[in-house]
Design goal:
six-stranded antiparallel β-sheet
């Protein structure tokens, strides 16, 4: 079955590398350069990709041109032979622009990319059931029932859980079930922006507040009037922003950068973090008063490995969406594929599962997703005992059980760990364990910090901060 050459509507380029996927919008015309150098339109931080590897010409038609890369650019084409899909792997000659179709897999070195239709993003429409969460596990059913009760109250909500466990999905659900459902739902990743940009995005600025401020701009808090602001990775907020956010929470007013008069706002705050904020408060890196303001009620989301019954319906949903973006019919998921997925530990949780399925649908090239299309890390495939995880009844109970280090399989099997003796300082020992895992990740990724952070399921900014905290020298970029 050939991918449909349908370039109508907005497109995106999905790049599968370093154990994750990045998505990049495709302009209506022009070209996009791809490579390892930061000068490219799309930077692919992978050692198998050359500094200037290839160019995609938007067209129409869509074409890709290799720029003389060391490891080549290959197109995997489907050829129908007696009702059996056969894949033909073709290397593109340097300087030759070859037409590609929407949904056609392309390899740049060992990375995979595909042009596909872009998913809708932006403010959530009230009553839009398209993105209803998939909830099957008993603990998740109880958690969502509690969240619906919380949604109707004017409380700030703090969502806790491992990276990729579904905190943003729960935040959206709370918004939809709240009296503010007709208002905007606006999200901000606190770890993705520099301190100055974060301040401008949150609070807005007046004309002339800084060099590039050629006009006044309302911030996220003003734009979300009568709605909900979702602060993801709130544990990454710089100290100076914490002070200003606390003032907003207390006074319900916002002062733009360069402004003279505060502006009243009416918004609800939902925050999320994979950090143990109570421990951060004790260390002095997070303000205690801000923590109490954000923590009107805290909800803990169990990791995917503790809710295996949700894997199959999640896989079906992700596969259908991925196939639709490629112009294909939804594939069948083989029984042995489902079994392999349930045996995986999922350190990156639901986000990792979606990335795996997105890639598997591209690689399957047919109507059925088989285990060989998953490309799972065999070292992470050990069936864990699904520990029961109950939703938190109080903030104190949640904080006591919140994860403080990235997931370690040896801490999940119910067996004694040699480094965690009962007589030692548990927090210090966990710190030593985390430091060792960071060093191991750097070694596995040849010193590449972005890939090491992805391997640990940790935001890069947090990863760099941990390097500093543990006195680990930051590896230098290799030339070339």
């Amino acid at each position: 079955m050939h991918p449909r050459d349908d370039t109508q509507g907005p497109l995106e380029i999905a790049v599968f590398a370093a154990g994750g996927v990045t998505r990049h919008p495709v302009p209506a015309q022009g070209s996009l350069s791809l490579g390892r150098s930061e000068e490219n339109d799309i930077r692919i931080d992978d050692s198998s990709v050359s500094r200037r590897h290839a160019i995609i010409h938007v067209g129409p038609p869509l074409r890709i041109e290799d720029l003389g890369s060391a490891n080549g650019t290959r197109i995997r084409r489907e050829l129908d032979a007696q009702e059996t899909a056969k894949l033909l792997d073709t290397r593109i000659q340097r300087g030759t622009a070859v037409e590609i179709k929407v949904g056609e897999p392309v390899n740049l070195g060992s990375t995979l990319l595909v042009v596909r239709r872009r998913e809708p993003t932006g403010t959530i429409a009230a009553g839009d059931g398209k993105w209803e969460p998939i909830v099957r596990d008993d603990a998740m059913v109880k958690l969502y029932a509690l969240a619906e009760r919380v949604a109707g109250a004017p409380l700030s909500v703090l969502l806790l859980g491992e990276t990729g466990s579904g905190k943003e999905v729960l935040a959206e659900h709370i918004h939809r079930r709240s009296p503010r459902a007709n208002g905007p739902f606006l999200r901000l990743n606190c770890a993705a922006l520099s301190e100055s940009l974060l301040e401008s995005e949150l609070f807005g600025h007046e004309k002339g507040a800084f060099t590039s401020a050629v006009r006044s701009k309302p911030g996220l808090l003003e734009t979300a009037e009568k709605g909900t602001v979702f602060l993801d990775e709130v544990g990454e907020l710089p100290a100076s922003i914490q002070v200003k956010l606390l003032r907003v929470l207390e006074d319900r007013q916002v002062m733009r950068v360069g402004g003279l008069h505060p502006r009243p706002i009416d918004v609800r705050f939902v925050s999320a973090t994979n950090r143990d904020l109570a421990a951060e408060v004790k260390k002095g890196t997070f303000r205690e008063d801000l923590f109490f303001r954000l923590n009107g009620i805290a909800l803990l989301i169990p990791p995917l490995r503790a809710r295996l019954g949700e894997i199959e319906p999640l896989v079906s949903t992700f596969a259908a969406r991925a196939a639709a973006a490629l112009g294909r019919r939804a594939p069948t998921i083989a029984a042995e594929t489902v079994a392999a997925l349930k045996d995986h530990r999922w350190p990156g949780n639901v986000r990792e599962l979606r990335n795996v399925i997105d890639r598997a649908v591209v690689l399957s090239g047919g109507d059925t997703v088989m285990p060989e299309h998953l490309l799972l890390d065999s070292g992470a495939t050990v069936t864990p005992p699904p520990a029961p995880v109950a939703p938190a009844a109080s903030a104190a109970a949640v904080i006591a059980s919140a994860p403080t280090v990235p997931y370690d399989p040896s801490l999940d099997a119910g067996t004694p760990h040699p480094d965690l003796d009962a007589g030692g300082d548990l927090r210090a020992q966990l710190g030593d364990l985390e430091k060792r895992r960071i060093l191991d990740a750097l070694e596995k990724c040849a010193g590449n910090q972005t890939q090491a952070a992805a391997l640990l399921g940790m935001p890069r900014r947090t990863f760099v901060a941990r390097l500093t905290a543990y006195g680990i020298p930051r590896p230098r970029k290799r030339p070339g």
